[in-house]
User: Which sequence fits this backbone?
Protein backbone atom coordinates (compact mmCIF):
# COMPACT_ATOMS: atom_id res chain seq x y z
CA UNK A 1 0.00 0.00 0.00
CA UNK A 2 1.43 3.38 -0.89
CA UNK A 3 1.50 6.47 1.24
CA UNK A 4 -1.60 8.00 -0.30
CA UNK A 5 -3.59 4.86 0.42
CA UNK A 6 -2.33 4.76 4.00
CA UNK A 7 -3.65 8.26 4.50
CA UNK A 8 -6.99 7.37 2.88
CA UNK A 9 -7.24 4.31 5.09
CA UNK A 10 -6.42 6.28 8.22
CA UNK A 11 -8.95 8.97 7.49
CA UNK A 12 -11.80 6.68 6.44
CA UNK A 13 -11.25 4.53 9.50
CA UNK A 14 -11.48 7.68 11.58
CA UNK A 15 -15.09 8.25 10.52
CA UNK A 16 -17.51 7.78 13.37
CA UNK A 17 -20.60 5.79 12.54
CA UNK A 18 -23.75 5.76 14.63
CA UNK A 19 -24.28 2.88 17.01
CA UNK A 20 -26.35 0.07 15.59
CA UNK A 21 -29.61 -0.44 17.43
CA UNK A 22 -31.01 -3.84 16.51
CA UNK A 23 -33.86 -3.64 19.02
CA UNK A 24 -35.13 -0.45 17.50
CA UNK A 25 -34.94 -1.94 14.01
CA UNK A 26 -36.83 -4.98 15.13
CA UNK A 27 -39.69 -2.76 16.27
CA UNK A 28 -39.77 -1.27 12.79
CA UNK A 29 -39.89 -4.76 11.33
CA UNK A 30 -36.56 -4.70 9.50
CA UNK A 31 -35.05 -7.59 11.38
CA UNK A 32 -36.55 -10.65 12.94
CA UNK A 33 -34.93 -11.79 16.11
CA UNK A 34 -35.64 -15.34 17.03
CA UNK A 35 -38.07 -15.65 19.87
CA UNK A 36 -40.15 -18.49 21.10
CA UNK A 37 -43.52 -18.02 19.55
CA UNK A 38 -46.49 -18.49 21.77
CA UNK A 39 -49.02 -20.80 20.27
CA UNK A 40 -52.57 -19.50 20.40
CA UNK A 41 -54.62 -21.42 23.01
CA UNK A 42 -57.13 -22.84 20.59
CA UNK A 43 -54.42 -24.15 18.33
CA UNK A 44 -52.61 -25.64 21.30
CA UNK A 45 -55.69 -27.55 22.44
CA UNK A 46 -56.47 -28.93 19.02
CA UNK A 47 -52.84 -29.87 18.50
CA UNK A 48 -52.84 -31.72 21.79
CA UNK A 49 -55.93 -33.71 20.75
CA UNK A 50 -54.37 -34.69 17.45
CA UNK A 51 -51.17 -35.69 19.21
CA UNK A 52 -53.15 -37.82 21.68
CA UNK A 53 -55.03 -39.57 18.93
CA UNK A 54 -51.92 -40.25 16.92
CA UNK A 55 -49.70 -41.13 19.79
CA UNK A 56 -50.35 -44.79 20.31
CA UNK A 57 -50.78 -45.89 16.73
CA UNK A 58 -48.35 -43.35 15.39
CA UNK A 59 -45.33 -44.00 17.54
CA UNK A 60 -44.36 -47.15 15.78
CA UNK A 61 -44.97 -45.64 12.37
CA UNK A 62 -43.03 -42.49 13.23
CA UNK A 63 -39.92 -44.28 14.32
CA UNK A 64 -39.70 -46.74 11.53
CA UNK A 65 -41.38 -45.58 8.36
CA UNK A 66 -41.22 -41.83 8.52
CA UNK A 67 -38.45 -40.20 6.52
CA UNK A 68 -36.64 -37.93 8.96
CA UNK A 69 -33.45 -37.23 7.02
CA UNK A 70 -32.21 -37.38 3.48
CA UNK A 71 -28.60 -37.96 2.56
CA UNK A 72 -27.40 -37.01 -0.93
CA UNK A 73 -24.24 -38.47 -2.43
CA UNK A 74 -22.84 -36.82 -5.57
CA UNK A 75 -19.78 -37.76 -7.58
CA UNK A 76 -21.07 -37.83 -10.96
CA UNK A 77 -23.49 -40.55 -10.02
CA UNK A 78 -26.07 -38.81 -7.88
CA UNK A 79 -27.90 -40.87 -5.26
CA UNK A 80 -30.28 -39.93 -2.49
CA UNK A 81 -30.93 -42.01 0.64
CA UNK A 82 -34.09 -41.50 2.66
CA UNK A 83 -33.66 -42.60 6.26
CA UNK A 84 -35.78 -42.85 9.39
CA UNK A 85 -35.21 -41.69 12.91
CA UNK A 86 -33.14 -44.79 13.69
CA UNK A 87 -30.91 -43.95 10.75
CA UNK A 88 -32.00 -46.99 8.77
CA UNK A 89 -32.38 -46.64 5.02
CA UNK A 90 -36.01 -46.54 3.83
CA UNK A 91 -35.44 -45.81 0.19
CA UNK A 92 -32.58 -45.35 -2.29
CA UNK A 93 -33.19 -43.06 -5.26
CA UNK A 94 -30.92 -42.57 -8.27
CA UNK A 95 -30.97 -38.97 -9.55
CA UNK A 96 -29.26 -39.81 -12.83
CA UNK A 97 -28.23 -42.71 -15.10
CA UNK A 98 -24.84 -43.11 -13.43
CA UNK A 99 -26.64 -43.27 -10.11
CA UNK A 100 -28.75 -46.21 -11.35
CA UNK A 101 -25.60 -48.03 -12.42
CA UNK A 102 -24.11 -47.57 -8.96
CA UNK A 103 -27.13 -48.90 -7.12
CA UNK A 104 -27.66 -51.71 -9.70
CA UNK A 105 -28.97 -54.64 -7.69
CA UNK A 106 -27.73 -53.63 -4.27
CA UNK A 107 -30.53 -53.82 -1.73
CA UNK A 108 -29.75 -51.28 0.91
CA UNK A 109 -33.22 -51.01 2.44
CA UNK A 110 -33.14 -51.51 6.19
CA UNK A 111 -29.38 -51.19 6.45
CA UNK A 112 -27.68 -48.65 8.64
CA UNK A 113 -26.95 -45.30 6.93
CA UNK A 114 -23.21 -45.65 7.46
CA UNK A 115 -23.16 -49.10 5.92
CA UNK A 116 -25.17 -47.83 2.95
CA UNK A 117 -22.93 -44.79 2.36
CA UNK A 118 -19.80 -46.94 2.44
CA UNK A 119 -21.36 -49.50 0.12
CA UNK A 120 -22.33 -46.82 -2.41
CA UNK A 121 -18.91 -45.16 -2.31
CA UNK A 122 -17.30 -48.59 -2.71
CA UNK A 123 -19.45 -49.22 -5.76
CA UNK A 124 -18.44 -45.84 -7.22
CA UNK A 125 -14.77 -46.74 -6.83
CA UNK A 126 -15.35 -50.18 -8.37
CA UNK A 127 -17.15 -48.63 -11.33
CA UNK A 128 -14.39 -46.09 -11.88
CA UNK A 129 -16.32 -42.95 -10.94
CA UNK A 130 -13.92 -42.24 -8.11
CA UNK A 131 -10.31 -42.56 -9.16
CA UNK A 132 -7.02 -40.80 -8.77
CA UNK A 133 -7.94 -38.14 -11.34
CA UNK A 134 -11.25 -37.29 -9.71
CA UNK A 135 -11.57 -38.18 -6.05
CA UNK A 136 -14.20 -35.78 -4.72
CA UNK A 137 -17.49 -36.77 -3.12
CA UNK A 138 -20.22 -34.40 -2.06
CA UNK A 139 -22.34 -35.46 0.92
CA UNK A 140 -25.42 -33.36 1.69
CA UNK A 141 -27.55 -34.02 4.75
CA UNK A 142 -31.08 -32.74 5.07
CA UNK A 143 -33.18 -32.71 8.23
CA UNK A 144 -35.73 -30.14 9.40
CA UNK A 145 -33.77 -29.89 12.59
CA UNK A 146 -30.45 -28.23 11.74
CA UNK A 147 -28.74 -29.65 14.79
CA UNK A 148 -29.71 -33.20 13.90
CA UNK A 149 -28.61 -32.63 10.32
CA UNK A 150 -25.25 -31.40 11.57
CA UNK A 151 -24.66 -34.34 13.93
CA UNK A 152 -25.66 -36.82 11.22
CA UNK A 153 -23.29 -35.09 8.79
CA UNK A 154 -20.41 -35.50 11.26
CA UNK A 155 -21.30 -39.10 11.98
CA UNK A 156 -21.38 -40.07 8.30
CA UNK A 157 -18.12 -38.24 7.69
CA UNK A 158 -16.43 -40.13 10.54
CA UNK A 159 -17.69 -43.48 9.33
CA UNK A 160 -16.40 -43.28 5.77
CA UNK A 161 -13.33 -45.49 5.57
CA UNK A 162 -11.58 -44.65 2.38
CA UNK A 163 -8.17 -43.16 1.78
CA UNK A 164 -7.15 -40.64 -0.84
CA UNK A 165 -10.56 -39.14 -1.35
CA UNK A 166 -11.82 -35.66 -0.70
CA UNK A 167 -15.25 -35.22 0.85
CA UNK A 168 -17.21 -32.01 0.78
CA UNK A 169 -19.96 -32.28 3.35
CA UNK A 170 -22.76 -29.91 4.15
CA UNK A 171 -26.27 -29.68 5.49
CA UNK A 172 -29.03 -28.46 3.20
CA UNK A 173 -32.57 -27.18 3.56
CA UNK A 174 -35.30 -27.37 0.99
CA UNK A 175 -35.48 -23.68 0.20
CA UNK A 176 -37.63 -22.88 -2.78
CA UNK A 177 -34.89 -21.07 -4.66
CA UNK A 178 -32.59 -24.09 -4.38
CA UNK A 179 -35.18 -26.75 -5.23
CA UNK A 180 -36.30 -24.75 -8.27
CA UNK A 181 -32.74 -24.68 -9.57
CA UNK A 182 -32.26 -28.36 -8.80
CA UNK A 183 -35.33 -29.22 -10.89
CA UNK A 184 -34.42 -26.84 -13.69
CA UNK A 185 -30.90 -28.20 -14.13
CA UNK A 186 -31.78 -31.72 -13.06
CA UNK A 187 -29.06 -31.84 -10.42
CA UNK A 188 -29.18 -32.53 -6.71
CA UNK A 189 -30.02 -29.96 -4.05
CA UNK A 190 -26.53 -30.42 -2.61
CA UNK A 191 -24.85 -29.58 -5.91
CA UNK A 192 -27.04 -26.49 -6.27
CA UNK A 193 -25.92 -25.32 -2.85
CA UNK A 194 -22.23 -25.77 -3.66
CA UNK A 195 -22.61 -23.90 -6.95
CA UNK A 196 -24.41 -21.08 -5.14
CA UNK A 197 -21.54 -20.87 -2.69
CA UNK A 198 -18.98 -20.67 -5.50
CA UNK A 199 -21.01 -17.96 -7.21
CA UNK A 200 -21.16 -15.94 -4.00
CA UNK A 201 -17.35 -16.01 -3.91
CA UNK A 202 -16.97 -15.13 -7.53
CA UNK A 203 -19.72 -13.16 -9.15
CA UNK A 204 -18.27 -13.57 -12.65
CA UNK A 205 -19.31 -17.21 -12.82
CA UNK A 206 -22.76 -18.26 -13.94
CA UNK A 207 -24.95 -21.16 -12.87
CA UNK A 208 -25.03 -22.44 -16.46
CA UNK A 209 -21.25 -22.79 -16.56
CA UNK A 210 -20.96 -24.46 -13.19
CA UNK A 211 -23.90 -26.87 -13.43
CA UNK A 212 -22.00 -28.92 -16.00
CA UNK A 213 -18.86 -29.32 -13.92
CA UNK A 214 -17.99 -32.43 -11.97
CA UNK A 215 -17.89 -32.50 -8.18
CA UNK A 216 -14.09 -32.72 -8.37
CA UNK A 217 -13.92 -29.53 -10.45
CA UNK A 218 -16.37 -27.76 -8.15
CA UNK A 219 -14.31 -28.88 -5.17
CA UNK A 220 -11.17 -27.36 -6.69
CA UNK A 221 -12.90 -24.08 -7.48
CA UNK A 222 -14.59 -23.95 -4.08
CA UNK A 223 -11.29 -24.49 -2.28
CA UNK A 224 -12.96 -24.40 1.13
CA UNK A 225 -10.94 -26.16 3.79
CA UNK A 226 -13.64 -25.83 6.43
CA UNK A 227 -16.11 -27.81 4.43
CA UNK A 228 -13.81 -30.31 2.82
CA UNK A 229 -11.72 -33.15 4.12
CA UNK A 230 -8.79 -34.39 2.05
CA UNK A 231 -7.47 -32.75 -1.08
CA UNK A 232 -9.30 -32.77 -4.39
CA UNK A 233 -7.20 -34.45 -7.02
CA UNK A 234 -5.39 -32.17 -9.44
CA UNK A 235 -3.84 -35.10 -11.25
CA UNK A 236 -6.00 -34.55 -14.32
CA UNK A 237 -4.22 -31.23 -14.75
CA UNK A 238 -0.69 -30.36 -15.71
CA UNK A 239 0.12 -29.27 -12.14
CA UNK A 240 1.27 -25.99 -10.60
CA UNK A 241 4.95 -26.71 -11.20
CA UNK A 242 4.47 -27.42 -14.90
CA UNK A 243 2.23 -24.36 -15.28
CA UNK A 244 4.91 -22.24 -13.63
CA UNK A 245 7.52 -23.56 -16.05
CA UNK A 246 5.29 -22.76 -19.03
CA UNK A 247 4.78 -19.20 -17.82
CA UNK A 248 8.43 -18.62 -16.93
CA UNK A 249 9.66 -20.10 -20.21
CA UNK A 250 7.25 -17.94 -22.15
CA UNK A 251 8.31 -14.84 -20.24
CA UNK A 252 11.91 -15.97 -20.63
CA UNK A 253 12.81 -15.19 -17.04
CA UNK A 254 14.08 -17.31 -14.17
CA UNK A 255 14.41 -15.15 -11.07
CA UNK A 256 10.97 -14.17 -10.01
CA UNK A 257 9.46 -12.63 -6.88
CA UNK A 258 5.90 -12.20 -5.60
CA UNK A 259 4.97 -15.49 -7.22
CA UNK A 260 1.39 -16.62 -6.82
CA UNK A 261 -0.58 -19.42 -8.45
CA UNK A 262 -4.22 -20.38 -8.14
CA UNK A 263 -6.30 -23.03 -9.84
CA UNK A 264 -9.42 -21.29 -11.03
CA UNK A 265 -12.22 -21.53 -13.54
CA UNK A 266 -12.64 -19.28 -16.55
CA UNK A 267 -14.73 -21.24 -19.07
CA UNK A 268 -12.20 -24.02 -18.50
CA UNK A 269 -10.02 -24.91 -15.52
CA UNK A 270 -7.03 -22.56 -15.54
CA UNK A 271 -3.96 -21.78 -13.52
CA UNK A 272 -3.79 -18.09 -12.76
CA UNK A 273 -0.18 -17.11 -12.28
CA UNK A 274 1.27 -13.79 -11.19
CA UNK A 275 4.89 -12.88 -10.64
CA UNK A 276 7.44 -10.11 -10.90
CA UNK A 277 10.81 -10.15 -12.52
CA UNK A 278 13.20 -7.37 -13.59
CA UNK A 279 10.77 -4.76 -12.36
CA UNK A 280 8.00 -6.07 -14.60
CA UNK A 281 4.71 -7.60 -13.55
CA UNK A 282 3.49 -10.70 -15.35
CA UNK A 283 0.02 -12.23 -15.40
CA UNK A 284 -0.71 -15.58 -17.04
CA UNK A 285 -3.79 -17.67 -17.46
CA UNK A 286 -2.90 -21.21 -18.48
CA UNK A 287 -5.33 -23.96 -19.49
CA UNK A 288 -4.95 -26.50 -16.68
CA UNK A 289 -5.67 -29.49 -18.93
CA UNK A 290 -3.64 -28.63 -22.02
CA UNK A 291 -1.02 -26.18 -20.75
CA UNK A 292 -1.98 -23.67 -23.47
CA UNK A 293 -1.49 -20.04 -22.59
CA UNK A 294 -4.96 -18.52 -22.76
CA UNK A 295 -4.09 -14.99 -21.81
CA UNK A 296 -1.07 -13.12 -20.58
CA UNK A 297 -0.15 -9.57 -19.74
CA UNK A 298 3.12 -7.84 -19.06
CA UNK A 299 3.29 -4.58 -17.16
CA UNK A 300 6.65 -2.91 -17.65
CA UNK A 301 5.88 -0.86 -14.59
CA UNK A 302 7.05 2.20 -16.43
CA UNK A 303 4.40 4.19 -14.68
CA UNK A 304 6.61 4.81 -11.67
CA UNK A 305 9.43 6.07 -13.89
CA UNK A 306 7.09 8.38 -15.76
CA UNK A 307 5.80 10.16 -12.71
CA UNK A 308 9.30 10.55 -11.32
CA UNK A 309 10.60 12.07 -14.54
CA UNK A 310 7.68 14.40 -14.73
CA UNK A 311 8.10 15.66 -11.24
CA UNK A 312 11.64 16.76 -12.00
CA UNK A 313 11.36 18.01 -15.59
CA UNK A 314 7.84 18.86 -16.29
CA UNK A 315 5.63 19.22 -13.31
CA UNK A 316 2.72 21.09 -14.89
CA UNK A 317 1.36 18.96 -17.58
CA UNK A 318 2.48 15.95 -19.43
CA UNK A 319 -0.02 15.84 -22.26
CA UNK A 320 1.84 18.57 -24.17
CA UNK A 321 4.94 16.48 -24.35
CA UNK A 322 3.41 13.98 -26.80
CA UNK A 323 5.97 13.39 -29.47
CA UNK A 324 4.73 10.09 -30.87
CA UNK A 325 1.88 10.32 -33.37
CA UNK A 326 -1.09 7.98 -33.29
CA UNK A 327 0.15 6.27 -36.44
CA UNK A 328 3.56 5.75 -34.96
CA UNK A 329 2.06 4.27 -31.77
CA UNK A 330 -0.07 1.93 -33.87
CA UNK A 331 3.01 0.85 -35.82
CA UNK A 332 4.91 0.13 -32.60
CA UNK A 333 2.08 -2.06 -31.29
CA UNK A 334 1.59 -3.91 -34.58
CA UNK A 335 5.30 -4.55 -34.95
CA UNK A 336 5.51 -5.88 -31.44
CA UNK A 337 2.49 -8.13 -31.97
CA UNK A 338 3.89 -9.08 -35.37
CA UNK A 339 0.53 -8.83 -37.10
CA UNK A 340 -0.78 -6.73 -39.95
CA UNK A 341 -4.40 -7.62 -40.65
CA UNK A 342 -6.24 -6.24 -37.69
CA UNK A 343 -9.85 -5.47 -36.86
CA UNK A 344 -11.68 -3.65 -34.06
CA UNK A 345 -8.82 -1.17 -33.87
CA UNK A 346 -9.14 1.52 -31.22
CA UNK A 347 -6.67 4.12 -30.01
CA UNK A 348 -7.05 6.67 -27.28
CA UNK A 349 -4.64 9.19 -25.79
CA UNK A 350 -4.85 9.05 -22.04
CA UNK A 351 -2.54 11.50 -20.32
CA UNK A 352 0.98 10.41 -21.08
CA UNK A 353 0.11 7.23 -22.92
CA UNK A 354 -1.79 5.75 -25.81
CA UNK A 355 -4.20 2.93 -25.12
CA UNK A 356 -4.49 0.67 -28.15
CA UNK A 357 -6.78 -2.29 -28.71
CA UNK A 358 -7.20 -4.56 -31.70
CA UNK A 359 -7.94 -8.12 -32.69
CA UNK A 360 -6.00 -10.25 -35.14
CA UNK A 361 -5.98 -14.02 -35.77
CA UNK A 362 -8.69 -14.48 -33.15
CA UNK A 363 -6.54 -12.91 -30.48
CA UNK A 364 -7.29 -9.75 -28.63
CA UNK A 365 -4.40 -7.36 -28.03
CA UNK A 366 -4.21 -4.51 -25.53
CA UNK A 367 -1.27 -2.12 -25.52
CA UNK A 368 -0.30 0.91 -23.53
CA UNK A 369 2.41 2.97 -25.18
CA UNK A 370 4.22 5.94 -23.72
CA UNK A 371 3.25 8.91 -25.90
CA UNK A 372 6.61 10.63 -25.37
CA UNK A 373 9.12 7.84 -25.67
CA UNK A 374 7.17 5.25 -27.68
CA UNK A 375 8.01 2.58 -25.13
CA UNK A 376 5.54 -0.20 -24.49
CA UNK A 377 4.34 0.29 -20.93
CA UNK A 378 2.32 -2.87 -20.85
CA UNK A 379 0.46 -5.25 -23.08
CA UNK A 380 -1.79 -8.24 -22.80
CA UNK A 381 -2.82 -10.87 -25.29
CA UNK A 382 -6.01 -12.91 -25.03
CA UNK A 383 -5.64 -16.05 -27.16
CA UNK A 384 -9.19 -17.04 -26.54
CA UNK A 385 -10.95 -14.13 -28.13
CA UNK A 386 -14.36 -14.98 -29.46
CA UNK A 387 -15.89 -12.66 -31.99
CA UNK A 388 -19.43 -11.97 -31.00
CA UNK A 389 -21.73 -10.09 -33.25
CA UNK A 390 -23.79 -7.71 -31.22
CA UNK A 391 -27.52 -8.15 -31.62
CA UNK A 392 -28.12 -4.51 -30.75
CA UNK A 393 -26.66 -1.97 -33.18
CA UNK A 394 -24.78 1.13 -32.10
CA UNK A 395 -27.73 3.32 -33.08
CA UNK A 396 -30.14 1.20 -31.09
CA UNK A 397 -27.87 1.30 -28.05
CA UNK A 398 -27.61 5.07 -28.38
CA UNK A 399 -31.39 5.34 -28.51
CA UNK A 400 -31.75 3.18 -25.41
CA UNK A 401 -29.39 5.44 -23.50
CA UNK A 402 -31.00 8.67 -24.73
CA UNK A 403 -34.49 7.43 -23.91
CA UNK A 404 -33.37 6.43 -20.46
CA UNK A 405 -31.66 9.76 -19.86
CA UNK A 406 -34.68 11.51 -21.37
CA UNK A 407 -32.56 13.99 -23.30
CA UNK A 408 -32.20 14.75 -26.99
CA UNK A 409 -29.72 17.61 -27.44
CA UNK A 410 -26.45 15.95 -26.65
CA UNK A 411 -22.80 16.63 -27.39
CA UNK A 412 -19.49 14.89 -26.83
CA UNK A 413 -21.08 11.57 -27.82
CA UNK A 414 -18.87 8.48 -27.82
CA UNK A 415 -19.70 4.82 -28.15
CA UNK A 416 -17.46 1.78 -27.80
CA UNK A 417 -18.12 -1.93 -27.97
CA UNK A 418 -16.13 -3.90 -25.45
CA UNK A 419 -16.77 -7.41 -24.17
CA UNK A 420 -20.24 -7.48 -25.68
CA UNK A 421 -21.08 -4.28 -23.85
CA UNK A 422 -21.58 -0.82 -25.29
CA UNK A 423 -19.92 1.91 -23.31
CA UNK A 424 -21.66 5.17 -24.12
CA UNK A 425 -20.68 8.64 -23.01
CA UNK A 426 -22.34 11.95 -23.75
CA UNK A 427 -23.14 15.30 -22.25
CA UNK A 428 -26.40 17.19 -22.04
CA UNK A 429 -27.73 19.95 -19.81
CA UNK A 430 -24.33 20.35 -18.15
CA UNK A 431 -24.37 16.76 -17.05
CA UNK A 432 -22.15 13.92 -18.08
CA UNK A 433 -23.86 10.63 -18.82
CA UNK A 434 -22.19 7.22 -18.87
CA UNK A 435 -24.06 4.10 -19.87
CA UNK A 436 -23.10 0.47 -20.17
CA UNK A 437 -25.53 -1.50 -22.30
CA UNK A 438 -25.56 -5.24 -22.94
CA UNK A 439 -25.06 -5.66 -26.71
CA UNK A 440 -27.18 -8.80 -26.86
CA UNK A 441 -30.17 -7.86 -24.78
CA UNK A 442 -30.08 -4.05 -24.88
CA UNK A 443 -30.38 -4.02 -21.13
CA UNK A 444 -28.77 -1.13 -19.26
CA UNK A 445 -26.12 -2.76 -17.11
CA UNK A 446 -24.97 0.37 -15.39
CA UNK A 447 -25.28 4.10 -15.76
CA UNK A 448 -23.84 7.14 -14.13
CA UNK A 449 -24.86 10.74 -14.36
CA UNK A 450 -22.38 13.34 -13.24
CA UNK A 451 -22.96 17.03 -12.86
CA UNK A 452 -20.21 18.75 -14.81
CA UNK B 1 -11.50 -13.55 15.45
CA UNK B 2 -12.18 -13.95 11.74
CA UNK B 3 -15.10 -12.30 10.01
CA UNK B 4 -16.39 -15.74 8.99
CA UNK B 5 -16.58 -16.79 12.68
CA UNK B 6 -18.70 -13.74 13.40
CA UNK B 7 -21.00 -14.63 10.53
CA UNK B 8 -21.42 -18.15 11.85
CA UNK B 9 -22.45 -16.76 15.23
CA UNK B 10 -24.73 -14.15 13.66
CA UNK B 11 -26.42 -16.95 11.73
CA UNK B 12 -27.48 -18.23 15.16
CA UNK B 13 -28.80 -14.72 15.86
CA UNK B 14 -26.01 -13.91 18.31
CA UNK B 15 -26.51 -10.19 18.89
CA UNK B 16 -23.21 -9.72 20.67
CA UNK B 17 -21.36 -11.13 17.66
CA UNK B 18 -23.37 -8.83 15.43
CA UNK B 19 -22.42 -5.74 17.43
CA UNK B 20 -18.76 -6.76 17.46
CA UNK B 21 -18.74 -7.32 13.70
CA UNK B 22 -20.42 -3.97 13.19
CA UNK B 23 -17.73 -2.20 15.19
CA UNK B 24 -15.03 -4.11 13.35
CA UNK B 25 -16.02 -3.46 9.76
CA UNK B 26 -18.56 -0.64 9.65
CA UNK B 27 -15.94 1.73 8.22
CA UNK B 28 -15.12 -0.71 5.41
CA UNK B 29 -18.77 -0.92 4.42
CA UNK B 30 -19.44 2.78 4.85
CA UNK B 31 -16.34 3.80 2.84
CA UNK B 32 -17.30 1.63 -0.10
CA UNK B 33 -20.87 2.95 0.01
CA UNK B 34 -19.51 6.49 0.20
CA UNK B 35 -17.25 5.76 -2.76
CA UNK B 36 -20.25 4.75 -4.85
CA UNK B 37 -22.73 7.37 -3.64
CA UNK B 38 -20.57 10.36 -2.65
CA UNK B 39 -23.15 11.38 -0.11
CA UNK B 40 -22.74 10.94 3.62
CA UNK B 41 -26.42 10.46 4.38
CA UNK B 42 -26.96 7.88 1.64
CA UNK B 43 -23.79 6.02 2.65
CA UNK B 44 -25.02 5.82 6.24
CA UNK B 45 -28.38 4.49 5.03
CA UNK B 46 -26.70 1.88 2.87
CA UNK B 47 -24.42 0.83 5.72
CA UNK B 48 -27.43 0.24 7.92
CA UNK B 49 -29.19 -1.72 5.18
CA UNK B 50 -26.10 -3.84 4.59
CA UNK B 51 -25.88 -4.81 8.25
CA UNK B 52 -29.60 -5.61 8.37
CA UNK B 53 -29.01 -7.84 5.34
CA UNK B 54 -26.04 -9.48 7.06
CA UNK B 55 -28.12 -10.10 10.18
CA UNK B 56 -31.02 -11.61 8.26
CA UNK B 57 -28.91 -13.60 5.80
CA UNK B 58 -25.80 -14.69 7.67
CA UNK B 59 -27.12 -18.26 7.66
CA UNK B 60 -26.83 -18.27 3.88
CA UNK B 61 -23.13 -17.54 4.08
CA UNK B 62 -22.00 -21.04 5.16
CA UNK B 63 -18.21 -21.18 5.44
CA UNK B 64 -17.21 -19.45 2.27
CA UNK B 65 -13.63 -18.36 2.41
CA UNK B 66 -14.07 -14.74 1.33
CA UNK B 67 -16.47 -13.17 3.81
CA UNK B 68 -15.43 -9.57 3.13
CA UNK B 69 -15.95 -10.04 -0.59
CA UNK B 70 -19.42 -11.35 0.20
CA UNK B 71 -20.22 -8.39 2.44
CA UNK B 72 -18.84 -5.81 0.02
CA UNK B 73 -20.72 -7.36 -2.89
CA UNK B 74 -23.90 -6.92 -0.84
CA UNK B 75 -22.80 -3.32 -0.21
CA UNK B 76 -22.26 -2.73 -3.92
CA UNK B 77 -25.65 -4.16 -4.85
CA UNK B 78 -27.52 -2.11 -2.27
CA UNK B 79 -25.60 1.08 -3.03
CA UNK B 80 -26.17 0.76 -6.78
CA UNK B 81 -29.91 0.66 -6.28
CA UNK B 82 -29.59 3.96 -4.42
CA UNK B 83 -27.53 5.93 -6.92
CA UNK B 84 -29.29 9.22 -7.39
CA UNK B 85 -29.06 11.17 -10.59
CA UNK B 86 -28.45 14.68 -9.27
CA UNK B 87 -25.29 14.25 -7.33
CA UNK B 88 -23.75 17.18 -5.62
CA UNK B 89 -20.14 17.53 -4.59
CA UNK B 90 -19.35 15.76 -1.37
CA UNK B 91 -18.74 17.99 1.58
CA UNK B 92 -16.47 16.14 3.97
CA UNK B 93 -17.51 18.52 6.76
CA UNK B 94 -20.86 16.72 6.96
CA UNK B 95 -19.03 13.62 8.11
CA UNK B 96 -18.50 12.96 11.80
CA UNK B 97 -15.00 11.90 12.83
CA UNK B 98 -13.80 10.06 15.91
CA UNK B 99 -10.79 12.31 16.36
CA UNK B 100 -10.15 15.57 14.57
CA UNK B 101 -8.69 14.63 11.19
CA UNK B 102 -5.51 16.09 9.89
CA UNK B 103 -6.33 18.77 7.32
CA UNK B 104 -4.26 17.28 4.49
CA UNK B 105 -5.78 13.84 4.92
CA UNK B 106 -9.27 15.26 4.93
CA UNK B 107 -8.57 17.15 1.71
CA UNK B 108 -7.20 13.96 0.18
CA UNK B 109 -10.47 12.14 0.80
CA UNK B 110 -12.32 15.10 -0.73
CA UNK B 111 -10.13 14.87 -3.82
CA UNK B 112 -10.72 11.16 -4.00
CA UNK B 113 -14.47 11.54 -3.91
CA UNK B 114 -14.75 14.61 -6.13
CA UNK B 115 -12.11 14.09 -8.79
CA UNK B 116 -11.99 10.39 -9.51
CA UNK B 117 -14.44 8.43 -11.61
CA UNK B 118 -16.77 5.96 -9.94
CA UNK B 119 -14.63 2.97 -10.86
CA UNK B 120 -11.39 4.67 -9.87
CA UNK B 121 -12.83 5.57 -6.47
CA UNK B 122 -14.13 2.06 -5.90
CA UNK B 123 -10.82 0.43 -6.82
CA UNK B 124 -8.73 2.74 -4.61
CA UNK B 125 -11.07 2.44 -1.62
CA UNK B 126 -11.38 -1.35 -1.86
CA UNK B 127 -7.60 -1.58 -2.12
CA UNK B 128 -6.79 0.89 0.64
CA UNK B 129 -9.45 -0.25 3.11
CA UNK B 130 -9.49 -4.02 2.73
CA UNK B 131 -6.10 -5.01 1.38
CA UNK B 132 -7.72 -7.00 -1.42
CA UNK B 133 -5.63 -8.22 -4.31
CA UNK B 134 -6.42 -6.65 -7.65
CA UNK B 135 -7.97 -9.80 -9.05
CA UNK B 136 -10.32 -9.88 -6.06
CA UNK B 137 -11.27 -6.25 -6.61
CA UNK B 138 -11.81 -7.01 -10.30
CA UNK B 139 -14.23 -9.75 -9.31
CA UNK B 140 -16.20 -7.63 -6.87
CA UNK B 141 -16.50 -4.77 -9.35
CA UNK B 142 -16.99 -6.99 -12.38
CA UNK B 143 -14.05 -5.51 -14.25
CA UNK B 144 -11.19 -7.06 -16.18
CA UNK B 145 -7.97 -7.42 -14.22
CA UNK B 146 -6.10 -5.28 -16.76
CA UNK B 147 -8.75 -2.56 -16.55
CA UNK B 148 -8.60 -2.63 -12.76
CA UNK B 149 -4.83 -2.27 -12.78
CA UNK B 150 -4.71 0.58 -15.27
CA UNK B 151 -7.54 2.47 -13.57
CA UNK B 152 -5.83 2.03 -10.22
CA UNK B 153 -2.55 3.44 -11.54
CA UNK B 154 -4.36 6.33 -13.17
CA UNK B 155 -6.28 7.11 -9.97
CA UNK B 156 -3.19 7.10 -7.74
CA UNK B 157 -1.40 9.31 -10.25
CA UNK B 158 -4.29 11.79 -10.25
CA UNK B 159 -4.29 11.89 -6.46
CA UNK B 160 -0.54 12.47 -6.37
CA UNK B 161 -0.87 15.35 -8.81
CA UNK B 162 -3.77 16.89 -6.91
CA UNK B 163 -1.96 16.77 -3.58
CA UNK B 164 1.13 18.25 -5.25
CA UNK B 165 -0.87 21.16 -6.68
CA UNK B 166 -2.30 21.82 -3.26
CA UNK B 167 1.20 22.17 -1.80
CA UNK B 168 2.30 24.51 -4.60
CA UNK B 169 -0.61 26.86 -4.18
Assistant:
Amino acid sequence: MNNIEKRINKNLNNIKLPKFDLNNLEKKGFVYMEKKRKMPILATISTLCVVCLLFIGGLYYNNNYKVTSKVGIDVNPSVELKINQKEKVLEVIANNEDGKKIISDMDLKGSDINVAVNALIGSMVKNGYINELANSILISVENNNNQKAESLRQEILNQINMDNISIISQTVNEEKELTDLANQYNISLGKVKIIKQIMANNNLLTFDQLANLSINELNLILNDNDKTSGNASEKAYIGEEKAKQIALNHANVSNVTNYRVELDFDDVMVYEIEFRSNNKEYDYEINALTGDIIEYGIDNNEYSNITNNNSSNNSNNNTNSTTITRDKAKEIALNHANVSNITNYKIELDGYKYEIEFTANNKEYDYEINATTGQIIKYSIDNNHKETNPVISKDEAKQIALNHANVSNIYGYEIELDDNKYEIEFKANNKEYNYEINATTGKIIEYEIDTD
Amino acid sequence: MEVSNYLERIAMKDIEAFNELYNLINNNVYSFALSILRNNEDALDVTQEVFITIYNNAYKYQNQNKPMAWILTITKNIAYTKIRSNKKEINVDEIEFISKPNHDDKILVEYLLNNLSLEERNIVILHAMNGFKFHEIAKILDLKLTTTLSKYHRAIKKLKELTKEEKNE
